[in-house]
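[Meeting: bench + compute handoff]

Bench side (C.D.) handed over the final construct sequence. Compute side (W.E.) agreed to return the predicted structure before the next meeting so the bench team could plan truncations. Sequence as handed over:
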Amino acid sequence: MTMKDGEGVCEHCSSRFEYLLWHCGMAECMYAYCDSCGRTAILSEWDKRMPRLVNCPGQQEICVAMEGYLQPCECGGYFKRGAAPRCPHCKHALSAEAATSYIEANAPGAKEGWKWQRNWSDVYCIVIENNRVGNNFEQPAS
C-alpha cells in the first residue's frame, strides 16, 4: 500500500501524479533528489552510516559535502543539493512554486493557515509516485 498526501499536476505536461510530503523534522532525516530522474533519497539521522559533517545541518536538503557519501541513483544519476523532483511522465523538473497550488489544496492544515515552503530545500521534501530510496549511503571500505 502506498501512502499519499494528494495528487499533483505537472506544470509542463499537465499529467497527474500522486505524492507524499515528508517533514524532516518529525522524521529526523535529510533528503536529496536525483539530478536525473528526480527520485528522493531519505536519509535517517539515526543511521550509523550517516556522516557527521560540520556545517551540514540536518532536517532539510543535504549539504554539498554530503553528496560524496551517497550511492548513485539506480537510473545512473546522482543525489545532489539543488536537484529537484521530476514529473514521472515527461521527466521535467517540477517547480516548488507551481506545486504550491496542489500541495496547499490537499493539506488539511492549510485551512488553519499552514503554508507550503515553496522550495525543495527546507524541512519538507516530496516523494513522487513512491519513487524513493532510503539510507543509500556508500558502504565503508572493508
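W.E. noted at the follow-up: The chain has a mean pLDDT of 93. C.D. will use this when planning the next construct.
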